[in-house]
Amino acid sequence: MSNFSDKVKIKHRLNKLKHKAGVALDDKREGFIDPDSIQKAQQAIERQQDHYSHEVETLLIKISDLWTQLKNETDAQKSKEIITYIHNFANNISDMADTFGHSLMQYFGISLRDFCEKIDMSNQAHHIIAPAHINVMTLAFKHNIKDDSSAQAQELKTMLSRAIEKYS
Amino acid sequence: MEQNTQEPKQERAYDLGRFRILIVEDSAFIGSLMCSALREMGVGKALTAKGVTEAKEKIATLNDNPSPDNIDVVILDWLMPDGRGSDLLSWIRSQKSETIKFLPTIICSAYASEELVEESRGRGANEILVKPVSAEKLAKRILYVIDRPRPFIASKVFFGPDRRRKIKDYEGQNKRTTKPHEIEQEYEQL
Questions:
Q1: pLDDT tens, position by position, A81-140
Q2: Which domains does chain B possess?
Q3: Do the chains contact at A32 and B10, CB–CB below 8 Å?
Q4: A contacts of B142 (beta carbons < 8 Å)
Q5: Residues near B6 by Cβ (< 8 Å), separated by ≥ 6?
Q6: B 51-80 residues with CB below 8 A of A?
Q7: Whose CB among A2, B54, B79, B180 lies 3.0–4.6 Å from B49's, allowing a Cys bridge?
């Protein structure tokens, strides 16, 4: 950035994307994407729902294994790396759950992800809060609780929030 | 007689068969889901990179020189284990190669905070797609980068698409601090 002069340059570029999409460079009209292909694309997304359970299960196992690793890790740098992985896997679960309307799993995924941003391994309370997340997520998965407003879902959310309140 | 000042209406669907779109996403599942959706939409090639490092390698290799195989749009996740989407964005905008630094970028994130919007705009993002991903949202963002490209601003402190979108008949306060004589217009020629 240091090569720039004090002047502000406004660079008007040719719209090469439009040209690549089969329209003349100087054509100012807006185009569209074939609605049928958008519908097919949505169906392609929805078809992936069949793999949702397997993906979430795999990530929950990974998170659980990483947590076990983290508890025994003495190297601060390695601990940080493990926490980053847990953070990202929790975020991935949240994204997938959000895509397919599993609002309870999304809620727990976000909660674990956010908790990872403040994990302090020297704080014993944190050794309770992280597994509490893993437990409720595993329960929600095993009992296939999709919606976050059902009685069962509320019970799990209460369990987690009590653990957080008690040990924070 | 009243003159018709409206833009002519759209006539045909875009053909995305020659488009190359790179999806930078650490979740293989979400990455593959987006790829399938883009292919169904007619995108010629949807590539994936699992993180910032792999994305940089792919962009550097494929967009080193102008070619039909250049990546045309980058859709990038905000949170990845080997770096943030913002790091990749800054890297793209700081490259010398014109086929890299002007790349249209779409930030994809479940965080829709004001902070994220500010940071991505400040680092030169073109668009933001808030997760969950749907075909409709993907199509809309792609259409935005095709139909509404903004000029690039190059200053000492910023390089990226103009952060001010044109608002027709705007009557509010003029917040630009740059004087007209300090602005240089540059038009790309064929």
A1: 999 999 999 999 999 999 999 999 999 999 999 999 988 888 888 888 999 999 999 999
A2: 20-150 (3.40.50.2300)
A3: yes
A4: 33
A5: none
A6: 72-73, 79-80
A7: B54
Q: Which residues contact A32 (CB under 8 A, 6 or more apart)?
A: B10, B13, B14, B143
- Cα separation of B128 and B100, whole Å? 19
For residue B99, list chain A residues with Cβ-Cβ distance below 8 A.
none
Q: How high is the mean pLDDT in each 10-residue block of chain B (190 residues)?
A: 51 90 96 97 97 97 95 94 91 96 95 88 94 96 94 93 73 72 82
The pLDDT of residue B167 is 57
A135/chain B closest Cα distance in angstroms: 22
- CA distance linking residue B144 with residue B142, whole number of Å: 5
How many angstroms separate the CA atoms of B35 and B38, rounded? 5
In chain A, residues with a C-beta closer than 8 Å to the C-beta of B133 are 45, 99
